[in-house]
Amino acid sequence: xxxxxxxxxxxxxxxxxxxxxxxxxxxxxxxxxxxxxxxxxxxxxxxxxxxxxxxxxxxxxxxxxxxxxxxxxxxxxxxxxxxxxxxxxxxxxxxxxxxxxxxxxxxxxxxxxxxxxxxxxxxxxxxxxxxxxxxxxxxxxxxxxxxxxxxxxxxxxxxxxxxxxxxxxxxxxxxxxxxxxxxxxxxxxxxxxxxxxxxxxxxxxxxxxxxxxxxxxxxxxxxxxxxxxxxxxxxxxxxxxxxxxxxxxxxxxxxxxxxxxxxxxxxxxxxxxxxxxxxxxxxxxxxxxxxxxxxxxxxxxxxxxxxxxxxxxxxxxxxxxxxxxxxxxxxxxxxxxxxxxxxxxxxxxxxxxxxxxxxxxxxxxxxxxxxxxxxxxxxxxxxxxxxxxxxxxxxxxxxxxxxxxxxxxxxxxxxxxxxxxxxxxxxxxxxxxxxxxxxxxxxxxxxxxxxxxxxxxxxxxxxxxxxxxxxxxxxxxxxxxxxxxxxxxxxxxxxxxxxxxxxxxxxxxxxxxxxxxxx
Length: 519
Fold this sequence. Notes:
Elements: H1 2-23, H2 27-45, H3 47-64, H4 68-80, H5 82-102, E1 108-114, E2 122-123, H6 125-135, H7 140-151, E3 159-160, H8 163-166, H9 174-196, E4 203-209, H10 219-227, E5 234-238, H11 245-259, E6 264-271, H12 283-291, E7 295-302, E8 313-322, H13 327-330, E9 333-337, E10 343-347, H14 351-370, H15 373-387, E11 406-409, H16 414-423, H17 428-441, H18 448-458, E12 467-474, E13 478-486
Parallel strand pairs: 4-5, 4-6, 11-12
Antiparallel strand pairs: 1-7, 1-8, 2-3, 6-7, 8-13, 9-10, 12-13
């Protein structure tokens, strides 16, 4: 009887395992599809070489049949057509000179630095909630709302907040805002100049972007005064352009470097928190309080050919998309006063949809510039099938992992990163720099892309020839991209960036919800 029960239990267990195995995805089929796609990609990418090999073979065979007498006859003919030869030679020289004079100048990223504040302005979630309560302006319901946002934000316990807002009571004033700006900008620039050995007097172009703090004199003038830059420096101060302004600054510097030979361009990206903490109870404005933190970056660009050997990257493409003509896009991130005249930045519920549309437009422009021919053909064939033949098939999303080795996606928030990971079909490894930057430093606005690139370098991932895609979103609404190619393998042992002292602690697991202890 016992043996019969054992047999029954074994058979039922076998049946259960069989059902579970049948419910598992067909990994073999997915692996086969993966290798079919890879084979297709290599075939199309190398189609030109496959075509050239037989052509070159035929030419080589033909050249081998040419005798010495044939060469002598050719030289005799050229003697009688001396004028034609001279004209053709002059034309070749002229066209060659014209090409070298009009081709775009190559833009190199010599180096960059990210500001890491001192530990005394570190702000845990508990400290943030405590300061919010001590401000005495938020209702209990909105304190609970901020706590809920923080618990799901993806931010860690070591982000940084301005000293003026950590005091009790808080002291948000112009002097403190200037102090924060100087601390961030000068801290990043000092480190950059020390790393590159470039003298401040050698900088011919200066571009500064800060969206919400625009004093007079400007932030760019503050830098000119502090570092005593030369009198003919071309300085620009970009304000109100949101979290994507860092790449707008890079694009502007690139355009200026095209018309100013042998120049250095200094780009400074930052945001100022001191005067932009919202002291009201409009929930659409309170989200910014919870996720924005202090930070900034300085980037040195050059068009000098002599700087290529020591530069880290070459700027390959910049693509800018502006959806401001659409009212919904224009108003989805909007600075305004609430019903009690408190100024804040309101985030619309349409933000994710608008960001998706802007991204779609941006990658439609970027795709043909960077994607291999195999992906472009697949995209085109799918488009023809859907639009012309009305076939009910899903739109083909190009595999950008074939175009880039590294992705630096603006750490605007957990929801933004989740959506891009899903839509671009990126792995956790690709998303790691963005998620860890959000966790360690919070949303530092336009400078977050550089903390992400610094993380990638600190992990020793940047190899010579690697391509990196930086993509950022910002008010307006804008989506901007920059593509960089590594000119050398970056050795993390020789790097100085904000991750180096603690990079061994990352990546960390970031739970969906992290409970904040009540004080």
